[in-house]
Amino acid sequence: VYGGLRAESVKAQADLPFIAITQGGYTIQASSDTSLGYMAGVAYSRPEIALRVALTYYSDIDHVLPTSENIPLAGTTIDTVDIKTPQSVNLEFQSGVAEDTLVFGSIRWVDWSEFAISPVAYVNETGRPLVDYQEDWTTYTLGVGRRFSEQWSGAFQISHEPATDVVPLTTLGPVDGRTAYTLAGTYTVDNVKITTGLSYIDLGGTENLAFTAYDGGDAIAVGVRVGYSF
After folding, report:
1. Could you give the CA distance from residue 188 to residue 94 in angstroms, rounded to a whole number?
2. CB burial of residue 220 (10 Å; 0-12, 13-18, 19+)
3. Can you list the alpha helix ranges (DSSP code H) found in 61-111?
4. What is the pTM (predicted TM-score) of this model?
5. 215 band by pLDDT with thresholds 50, 70 and 90
6. What separation in angstroms does the CA of 130 have from each of 26, 68, 84?
7. CA dihedral for 101, 109, 62, 37, sign (positive or negative)
8. Residue 117 CB-density burial (10 A; 0-12 exposed, 13-18 middle, 19+ buried)
9. Are 71 and 121 a contacting pair, CB within 8 Å?
């Protein structure tokens, strides 16, 4: 069993000239807020066959952000926005299938339907939150890893997040579902492990509140992780 505290810092700003366009557009500045949450989990492993299954819960985290909203012809609104970043659950597994080869995967559920950013002036102008999601999201990942030597190993994985088919989505959330393809390499020396990954992400299309269509979007992500075991 395992667990621990999480510290999360949030701040935001947005400039949306196509919202309240007849009044000069809309901007918002939200000051930073840091709050605590926790994580807890349980895992089962059998090292002789490289089997490990872990179930981890991450709590939601409450934030109160001082905000300044401006619509030029309507004035400035000073207030606060309550945000609750969503709780989530991860189920992760791996198992050896041959010498120096293993398969791995995960299922991640995030309670996005309970998340919303609802600044006062924006809601009064549009009738909807700045950001919200009407469905929870579940992401599925499956991959294979291979050790080539004592120092080098590699992995390939595919992640898929099904579309919710909710239209329209809010202004700052114009993506509905995604599929990601990731290639990673790991170098290990003594107690240090360095992993570099490259992902290509195919973004699902949708339409936002301003009737702007998003289709055929993609993204490329690069990451480096350094771990030290003791």
Report:
1. 19
2. exposed
3. none
4. 0.82
5. confident
6. 11, 14, 14
7. negative
8. buried
9. yes
